[in-house]
Design goal:
There is one protein chain. By secondary structure, the protein is mostly helical. The protein has a domain at 199-242. The protein contains 15 helices and no strands. It has helices at 7-15, 22-30, 34-50, 55-67, 74-84, 92-99, 103-112, 118-127, 130-137, 144-153, 156-164, 172-182, 186-193, 200-220, 226-241. Helix 5 packs parallel to helix 7 (103-112), helix 11 (156-164) runs parallel beside helix 13 and helix 13 (186-193) packs antiparallel against helix 14. The N and C termini lie far apart (80 Å).
């Protein structure tokens, strides 16, 4: 049986490409905790990205990294996701696998990876939960195509994240779709109203929706008559238009 090595020892040798043999890594991984496997996975990913490895060592590292996608602990897979999230040279198949993992694993690559295409991001948005969708929605320089997909299928939380992302290319029709789906939600309206260069007609509709919601509230509480509340709503829309 191989004598276990520490994470510190593993990290040191991995930087120089001396611990890239698949069987040896797997044997090491069987005898350590999930936290130690996560540290080892992170060290190996950094070596793959930044060390001057021979072709054989790089292929071995790719195989080991691929096997780590099946690690039973999300802590290990999350470590891979964080290590590869911003890297342009990250292996595409590993990034795609991580992007389709559970959301606490996928969030780093969904939020930052330059390797993922718009089509892949749209697919992930279609099947992801609120956390995964929000990670996509907050990507810098988010394209109009991905923004439109999120506006159509995104959860309330994802749509709020999309609305407050000043770097997202959010077309007017997508903002209107968010308003159609969540217009009764005050936080959604506030998020959309905070966007710069909001089209005047959309701003007017948002103000009207806000005034209508307020009118319904004060009327239900008997703080104002229905006629007076309706007049206040109409005046709010006229002021927003001009």
């Amino acid at each position: 049986m191989m004598k276990p090595v520490s994470v510190r020892q593993f990290a040191a040798v991995s930087v120089y490409g001396l611990f890239m043999i698949v069987g040896r890594f797997l044997a090491w991984a069987q005898g350590v905790s999930a936290r130690e496997r996560a540290e080892g996975a992170s060290a190996l990913a950094r070596a793959y990205l930044y060390a001057d490895l021979l072709d054989n060592d790089r292929r071995d590292a790719d195989v080991v990294l691929t096997t780590l996608l099946d690690d039973p602990s999300p802590v290990v897979r999350r470590a891979l996701s964080e290590a590869f999230a911003s890297a342009e040279d990250a292996p595409h198949h590993i990034i795609v696998a991580l992007a389709n993992d559970q959301s606490d694993v996928s969030a780093p690559v969904l939020g930052r990876s330059p390797v993922l295409s718009d089509a892949e991001l749209i697919d992930c948005a279609a099947i992801g939960d609120a956390f995964a969708q929000s990670a996509i929605a907050l990507r810098p320089n988010l394209s109009a195509a991905v923004a439109a997909a999120l506006a159509e299928v995104g959860t309330r939380e994802a749509c709020i994240s999309l609305a407050v992302n000043g770097g997202a290319d959010l077309p007017e029709f997508s903002m209107r779709r968010i308003l159609d789906r969540f217009g009764d939600d005050g936080e959604i309206r506030e998020s959309l109203l905070s966007r710069p260069y909001l089209p005047p007609t959309l701003r007017a509709d948002l103000v009207t929706a806000t005034a209508s919601a307020l009118s319904a509230f004060v009327t239900a509480c008997a703080w104002m008559s229905g006629e007076r509340a309706e007049r206040a709503t109409r005046e709010a829309r006229e002021k927003a238009t001009f």
